[in-house]
Amino acid sequence: MPPASALSQATSSVTRLLKDLDSYDEELADQKSSLEKLQADTSTGAEGDDDETGNREYLVKQQAQAMKETQAVFKPLLERLGVASGKLEHELSSPDADAAEVEKAKEALAVAVQKQTSSTRDGV
């Protein structure tokens, strides 16, 4: 099997970073939902003794910290996506690229540009 072309490698890099971005988006949404549930349980004074209330407050703090750590991932991930997108644009200018590879690359690049310009994540 012949080695992958530079265009194919650049497309794969962008696609992988887009999957990572989607994964972190999903993780952040799950964490936010979990945090809201914990906060609701804590603020409604769900029945239990002081130990349980203290534990819930601790869990709220831990979940908030996990969200901060996930949010911190987005800026460097978007920067890497920008670099990979630039490399992909450069490789698209190569005249010896296969038409199918070019189409996949253009699709990946369009999604990457859309994700970079529509980023509404906190801390980005």
What can you tell me about this protein's structure?
One of its GO terms (biological process) is tubulin complex assembly. This is Tubulin-specific chaperone A. Residues 30-56 are annotated as: Disordered. This protein has a single domain (6-117), classed as Methane Monooxygenase Hydroxylase, Chain G, domain 1 (Up-down Bundle), CATH 1.20.58.90. It is 81% helix and 0% strand. It has helices at residues 6-43, 50-92, 99-117. It is rod-shaped, with a radius of gyration of 21 Å.
- Derived structural class: mainly alpha
CATH architecture annotation name: Up-down Bundle
Order of helices and strands: HHH
Mean pLDDT: 87
Strands, total number: 0
Number of helices: 3
Radius of gyration: 21 Å
Main location: cytoplasm
InterPro entries: TBCA, TBCA_sf
Subcellular location: Cytoplasm, Cytoskeleton
GO molecular function, one term: beta-tubulin binding
What structural keywords apply?
mainly alpha; Methane Monooxygenase Hydroxylase, Chain G, domain 1; cytoplasm; chaperone; 124 residues; single chain; rod-shaped
Topology overview:
Elements: H1 6-43, H2 50-92, H3 99-117
Helix pairs in contact: 1-2, 1-3, 2-3
Condensed summary:
The protein has 124 residues and is mainly α. The protein is 81% helix and 0% strand.
